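Summary for the steering committee. One of the milestones for this cycle was to obtain a three-dimensional model of the protein with 2'-O-acetyl adenosine-5-diphosphoribose bound, which we needed before selecting residues for the alanine scan. The sequence and ligand used are listed below.
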Amino acid sequence: MKKIVALTGAGVSAESGITTFRDSGGMWEQYDVMEVASIDGWRKNPQLMLRFYNDRRKQLEEVVPNAAHRILAELEKDFDVTVVTQNVDNLHERAGSSKILHLHGELTKARSSIDPDLVVDIGYRPIEWGEKAPDGSQLRPHIVWFGEAVPMIGTAADVVATADTVIIIGTSLNVYPAAGLVGYADRKASIYLIDPNEVSCAGRNITMIREKATVGMEKLREILCDNC
Ligand code: OAD
């Protein structure tokens, strides 16, 4: 079976109603990224950060996967598909994708604030200030913040290196190390980029599909499944 790796970002979930970060009206126009998404922010004002992610988690319960998530999951019938996502939502899981690497963590999990490997499922409920992890430390969102290492990046790079086809969907490719993953693709791999806006990805031969994720994935399915 041919291998597909999908590198997804906030844009794949935009049509489900989750705001992206850097588009006009995006999350980082409404909030100071360093206050709500950095390890320094956590040290300065953990309660503000708990509220920020509690709100994101509550919203996640109210939205559903869109056709782009679903088509990616359906491609598993004909391809060995791995999703490498920067998103912290669970819409790929809920659409039925079975192999997903969350580079930046997961909203529905929490972890110890001193041991990154002590992770617990919390579903959609809020994390309270004063709520303890099993090791007695404050429970915090299981999110990789600015200023922290991205533990899954090595695994993700290995997966990208073995792909016959790489699909980039809905990421501005602004945030490293995730943005550098496409550089690990084999020289013979086909690379497609789905985004309604221009995204620059220098140094690779990429087929651009200038569409929103749902329309772009429908078009790409036709291209990929010519022989399915
Ligand atoms: P960005 O907000 O930077 O980029 C979103 C991309 O999605 C842009 O290129 C948009 O043009 C595109 N887009 C918008 N609507 C779309 C649609 N309907 N279909 C397809 N594409 C669409 O989001 P990311 O690149 O995912 O990290 O951001 C990366 C990281 O920055 C996030 O994981 C988050 C953020 O700060 C942390 O918080 C640690």
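Key point for the committee: The chain has two domains: 1-18+66-104+149-228, 19-62+107-143.
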